[in-house]
Amino acid sequence: MTPGAPRLARALLARLLSAEDRAFVLGDLDEAFEARCAADGVRAARRWYRRQVLHSVLPLVGSALADTAAGLPREVRQTARQLLRRPLYAAGMSGTLALGVASALALGGVAWSVWLRPLPYPDSERLVRVWERGPTDSIGERDRYPVSPPLLRELGTREWTHFTGFAGVLRSTPEWIVDGDIEQLTGVSVSPGFFELLGAAPVAGRAGWSGAGEEPAAEVILTEPFWRQAFGGDPSVVGSSIDLGGVQHTIVGVVPAFAGYPDAADVAVPLHFEARQLGEGMRGARYVEVIGRLRASSTVEAGAAEFAGFLEALGVRWASHEGWSGEAVTLRADLVGPFRSVLRLLLAAGTVFLALALVNVAGLGGARALERRGETAVRVALGASGTRRLRAALLEGALLGAVGGAVALAGGGLLLRAASRWLPRDLPRTEALLPSAGQALVILALAILLGAAVVALADRVVPAGSLLLSGVRTTAGRRSSRALVVGQLALTTVLLAAGAVAVERSLALAARDVGFRAEGIWTGLIALPRSTGDGLEARRDRWTALLGALEERGLRAALSTNPPMTRSNSNYTFRRPGGGDESAFAQYAIVSPGYFQLMDVPVRGRAFQPGDTGPVTIISESLADRFFPGEDPVGATLTILEEAHEIIGVAGSTAHFGPSVPEPPMMYVSYERVNWDFAQLLVEGGAGMGAEVASVLAISVPGARPPEGTLYEAHLSEWFRPLRIQVGIVGALALVGSLLAGLGLYSAVALNLRGRMRELGIRVALGATGARIVTGVVRGALGWSAAGLMLGFGLWWLGRGALETALGLERAAVTPTAATATALAILGLTVLAVAAPARRAASADPLDSFRAD
Question: Distance between CA atoms of 808 and 793, rounded to whole angstroms?
């Protein structure tokens, strides 16, 4: 080679030229290159050399591609027939690859859709959600809450340095009345300027409300999916009206489907609060979600500091804000905040599972290559070139990858469809988990490339006595192979232990006493019609009429505005005498006489009675223990909403937010003293109680809509739903990990035994029985399993804090029961994985073993 000639260009040309032409062409090119160097200099000569190589290579590559394409159909058919003659090998290779790709697709798809994908709004990183932060509790933490209606009004009247504006959001379920039929819709009530804050452009009409008065017009904006489904996408519906809950609403526009925030909805209506909801006494009613948009020059930190300072200043004026602060976080970060750790886990698990699948495919391919060493030697002796063998391996891997990719897309699609139904309802952006057609093609292409690359690598290096073969015949290689298997078993141990802990935790919470009766109780939300007016006495008379009508039919019933474990949260302030101006917080519930008896909540002192129109209250044991330690609170006074109330009883504590959360302090007042125009109706009865309630409601409260009631046990089931999902996620990860670990064991043992065929043949010839060989193989594999178990439990112990966060587990200690179950599962998996290759090795003929080596 002439010094100075481009090495890469020369090597490429030499690779493509035939043996007869190589020396002649390269020699002429080198002579011309030397002449060019002398005439024009080395740099110009190198450029000339590359041009000459390029002009020579393009025809050669085209010819090679044409020859390959002409013979490709025949080679594909031949490779497919070879694979069909080895169905177990083909199924194992494509199935392992499919398992890895499907795991990565499903787990990565959830993480991408929910977490990593940006919100589809302009400058979405400037969208923030704001919260109120409560006073610091006894352990130094501050709970966060939505915003009250009076505070939302103040946010809109203030000039902000770092925010362009704020908007409130409430979820709703309006009833669409069309041709006498009632259809329940999903909806949101939003403040003026909401769509402008989001940057949502209308599909038709306008995106916003007319006027800015205290009483907004009865208008509605449709979302595009509902518009197309209900009205066929007809733009002329803008300006017409629809009946929502008995009120005609004018359709003013159509907007694209909400993507990520708010939840999927059919319609949006103006958010409006009545005068009493905006009273200063309602500052403790924190239930309105609020979003804002930062100015282009502002940061999230600056906006959060401004909002927190504003709320802290309000504490000087209002007791309900005393000790409170605020928080502002980007909307996307806030939506995924509670799920970020588990999403990280899913993303990492998908990556690890894909990597393990590829390693196991390489192991299976290596075992197959060792099995075909004799065939490969014959082909080489007959003149098969390395390029042809490589092309055959690439084609085999590509076919296996195509099958595995197709199976992965089908299986991953089924998993993602199932995930969109059983993932938590408050998990954002689960409506678009499935990959698009373009993404599916990319995934299939990647599976083909991965399959081709891994199979070709295994086919090339094993016969060469390189990486995988050294893993069979050298001490260092055997240690590397065993370390890989032990690592897979350790990961499976962690996942199986997590599943056992999650199951134990769920069973323990299900067995915990929640402090109230849920069995045999029917419940439904009742909203009084507007015609009844806003007066306390008018509402009280309607509620009394309803309860009386139910009692006349022999039905025990009660009312509550804040029943336990229904996702209801009414956190109000109170003060006790002698406590100065310091306020505390408790859940606030308006109930009717008979509520405690119906729900089997014990009361010390006395419960509410008909005629309790004075300022009296019943507190929970949790409130009494915290604020009246060592004394009887009955007869004492609490100031609730700036009014002194006498404590007449102490009720048993209830798991208001579920059995995993300490019972919060509760304050109860009688509906005869304070009442609202909505409440949960609780009736003793079964699933058929809805029809009975509807008939009573039609007579006692004309104009009220029949509620879509349910058994109270459904609320408990809904609370436990995330736990069931948690068990399902961890169980699915453990299942995939177990399958991959089993395949890893199988491929490692099979590869090891293929490399030891001569040794095994000698042992059989010397009288070793098949049972002895099988026992030895299984004993060695069980040693790997024991090492994997110890490593897995050690990793669990070292990383238990991170696992508790990622998996949502509390005190993630592996109990003896969980440890035993995990160990038995790992040992059983080991025996199943190594049984087949061990039996095959034990039944091998000694002469065949010598010929195979």
Answer: 19
> Residue 65 is inside which H or E element, if any?
helix 42-85
* Cβ count near 396 (within 10 Å): 24
Residue 73, preceding peptide bond in cis (omega within 30° of 0): no
Q: What is the rounded CA–CA span in Å between residue 793 and residue 498?
A: 11
Residue 822 CA to residue 491 CA, distance in Å, equals: 12
Residue range 346-379, pLDDT digits in tens: 777 788 888 888 877 877 777 677 666 666 666 6
Query: What three-state secondary structure class fits 248?
Result: strand
- Using one digit for the tens of pLDDT, what is the confidence trace for 177-223? 887 777 878 889 999 889 999 888 899 999 888 865 566 788 999 99
How many residues are listed for the chain in this entry? 853
* 464 band by pLDDT with thresholds 50, 70 and 90: very low
What is the DSSP code string of 352-413? HHHHHHHHHHHHHHHHHHHHTHHHHHHHHHTT--HHHHHHHHHHHHHHHHHHHHHHHHHHHH
User: What is the C-alpha separation between 677 and 685, in angstroms, rounded?
Assistant: 24
Query: Which residues is 187 bridged to in the sheet?
Result: 172, 267
Give the C-alpha distances (Å, rounded to integers) separating 22 from 14, 15, 237, 285, 390.
6, 9, 77, 87, 22
Dihedral angle computed from the Cα positions of residues 77, 82, 85 and 89, in that order, rounded to the nearest 10 degrees: -120
Distance CA 338, CA 350 (A): 20
In sequence order, what are the residues at sequence separation of 6 or more whose Cβ sits closer than 8 angstroms to the Cβ of residue 208? 192, 193, 195, 196, 252, 253
The neighbour count for residue 619, using CB atoms within 10 Å, is: 27
Looking at residue 586, its amino acid is A
Average pLDDT, the chain: 81
* Rounded CA separation 729/110 (Å): 12
How far apart are the C-alpha atoms of 754 and 848, rounded to whole Å?
A: 12
Can you tell me the distance from the alpha carbon of 622 to that of 24, in angstroms, rounded to the nearest whole number? 96
Q: What pTM did the predictor assign? A: 0.66
What integer pLDDT is reported at residue 474 of this predicted model?
A: 46
Neighbours of 534 (CB within 10 A): 12
**Residues 500-504: what's their mean pLDDT?**
81
CB contact at 8 A, 310 and 132: no
